[in-house]
Design a protein that fits this description.
The chain is an alpha+beta fold. The protein is built from 6 helices and 15 strands. The strands form 3 sheets. The protein has a 6-stranded mixed sheet. It has a 6-stranded mixed sheet with strand order 5-6-9-8-10-14.
Amino acid sequence: MEPFILNNKEYFSIKEWMDRFPGLEVGFTTKNGGVSQQAFSGLNFGFHVGDEQRAVCENRLLLADKIDFPLSGWVGAEQTHDVRIQKITKLDQGRGADEYESSFSATDGFLTNEQGILLTLCFADCVPIYFIEPDSRLIGVAHAGWKGTVNGIAAEMIGKFQQNGANSGKISAIIGPSICKKCYIVDERVISLVKNRLDDVENIPYNQVSEGQYSLDLKEVNRLILSKAGVKNDNIHVTDYCTSCHSEHFYSHRRDQGNAGRMMAYIGWKEDSRP
C-alpha cells in the first residue's frame, strides 16, 4: 500500500501513521503552491539553493499553517551527505526554521521524543527515511543520498534509537519520494561502495546499463540496510513516488540539471499529544 497520501497540492501525509499515533504530524511537501519564482517556482523550502530568503520563509509559514505546526517549533540542518544524527530537545526549537545560519551544521538526521518539535530536512532526489518506535515515542528522519546510504545512515539511526531506549523489533520505517532506479545512473565507484555495504545480499539492487554505468535503486539499498539493522521487513514500507519521474509533484536535482528547489520531509509530535 502506498504510504503517502496527497492531502493538498502542497504536501503528502503518511496517513496510516497519523491515524495510528494521535498528535503525530508527518509528511513530504510538493513543489506546488508557494511564492518562489523562476527555477524555484512554487513551494521551495531550501534556503541554500539561491532563492530569496523571504520567499522560503513565506513558503514555510504557509506549510506551518496548513499542518497546524508553528514555525517556532521547527528545526533544520545544513545537510552534508554524511551520517551525523542529532537528538533534538525543546532547547533547540526554532534552529534553522526561518534562516539557514542557525541550522544544525553538518547534520543529516534528527531524532526526538519530545512534543512541539518538527524535525525537517530538505530533498530533491535523495532518499528521505522516516522512523518511529511507539513505546519510547522516538521519531526520526534521515537524509540518504548515495554517500549517506553507503555509509549507513539508516543503520546509524537504528543504533541511535536503541541507545535512547527503543525496541528495535518495534521500530517502523518509511522510505519516501526519491529518485527511482531507472532515473538514477551511477558509475563503478558508487557501485563498489554499495557492494561493500551489502556484501551478503542475494538480490543486488542495481544493474549494468552500459560500460561502467549502472542503474541503482537507492530506495532498495536503504530497505536492505534497515532490514540488516534489525527492522522487521513488515515494518518497512517504500513509496512508489519518484522525484524525477513525477514532475507534476516534485523538484529533481538530476532532471533539472542542478537548478531546482527543495521539498521537505518532516515529522513531529504536536503539543499535548501524549496519550
